[in-house]
Amino acid sequence: MIDLLGTHYNYLVFVALVAIGLYGVTASTNLVKKIIGLNIFQVGIFLFFVTSGYVDGAAPPLVGHGSGPYASPLPHVLILTAIVVGVSLTAVALALIVRIYEAYGTLDEDAIREVQLND
Amino acid sequence: MTDAIALLVVVPIVLALAPIAFGRLWNRTGWLAAVVAALAHLGLALVVASQVAATGRFTYAVGDYAPPFGIELVADGVSATLALLVSVVTLAVVIYARRAGPDSNGFYSGLLLLTAGISGVFVTGDLFNLYVFIEITGLATYALVATGRSPDAALSSLKYLLVGTIGASLYLLGVGYLYISTGTLNMADLAATIPEVGYDSPLVLTGFGLIVVGLAVKAALFPLHTWQPDAYADSPDSVTAYISALVSTAAAYALFRIIYAVFTPAFDAAAPFALDALVILAAVSVVVGSVLAVLQSDLKRMLAYSSVAQFGLIVAGFAVANATAVTGGLIHLVGHAIMKAGLFVGVGALAGVAGGRTVDDFAGIADRAPVTSAAFAVLAFALVGVPPAVGFAGKWHIVLGAVEGGRWGVAVVAVVSTLLTLAYFARVVERMYFREAPIDASADADDSTVGDNGATDGTLASDGGSEPSSDDAAGISTEAKVVVVVAAVGAVVLGLFATDLVAVFEPVLEVYFE
Question: Domain A2-118 has what CATH class?
């Protein structure tokens, strides 16, 4: 078990990040904190992909840089795309939050619900 | 001409830039760009469809990188039909939006990005590429929902963004599990390599679970539907019509591809509990969605919950895992898109005359807007499943397939859902046709003479009904009327030609169920 912790700590970090992120999205009533939680959740998944391409003691997959085994570059490339998607999502989310703050004067979910009920 | 399949995605994306680039020069740029894109999309979809009809399934290697290393686009009977559906719905919504708005260039940019994303979902043959298109679809949808004027629209959009992103991320994680176990992302290649890893491998099963849950969030199955009623109710009418017709449809289609092109029916044979669980999720969604729809007084919310139920039915058809039920699911997927888009445009148009969009506001509306009301009623009964409309053809095949597969539960749920669908539409149609219009609501109508007609005497109003052109002009634009009527006619005609639709889907499914 200790052995597993030592060799697979990257996967444990992935699980921890995903769990922390999901907790942040669901438990916090502050909209900005929800977005932060969402980002942590996504970063956890990115770490999972990136770490899966890593091979212990492997060479970079370039001609003239040692012989096999090579580390897999594909997951890294995929995650570059996914990071771009994540940044766009955060931008849209923050733009929406600015509009919500202008309309309700608060970022707290419960307070917004009270404003809606009073209208 | 095979480039047409890639252009289905490229053309709307490029034209999405036009409203932003030239919007300041002429403020109608957005609408014009959207019309051009919709017509070009229709032409390209017809080219793809004719090629599929001539030669059957064909693939396209993006950038000439041979699959499985490069990204592959796939055209077959199912994806070509759905690409055509995208063109038709886009064209209809753009025509409707000319008068109904939202009248901004940003809206048309978002709409075209959404068109590109959905087209991409329908034609891609690569799991990661599918993720990217799902996220483009998602991003464009969040932006479009937020074009609603009320601050509630922004809040609904943010709620959708949070839930939708978690769904898409779970899908991505599932794809990661499959990639780690097989080393490939190409759908056809995965179908060959997953059996080598073993269908009962924990990695493969977990990957399947994560992908299905992620897509179920996007397709809005109960209990993952929480984003959907708010998003539909707070969006402008043209946006609701578009996203109700295509966004969940794209997710359900992705689910169909994952189950049959990636996991294949052999997976169902090896691990039957996976699809059993999906059948239960779908069946619960049908019943709860229908009951919630019956409880709504706001018509847009009622139609939104109705979508939860209908997508439950479609996914149930996919999960029953025999060719008849899957055909039923696909027919209902196409039919639902046409009927729901028509119904939402109908609600938007009639609400303008009625002065509100609750069930009670619609009392007596048939006298004031006979043509639109009649088309709305036809669409409502088509969705209930009255033959010969397309709603009947879809449900019939799903029930038939469920009985063939020994899934009596699904058959019972489908029949019960039909009764519940009738329950929530019958009360609307009953109010539209057999109740007197409240006097204050009549005064809200744009045309004062029509308002007097409705208020003073029932016979006068029905006299007006014989001259729909003058009477219907109250507050409904010609565009809206045309779109609703075409949707109603389309739903019936598609039902009459349902056997041809079955023939189009058959070669695709034959490969999966050989």
Answer: mainly alpha
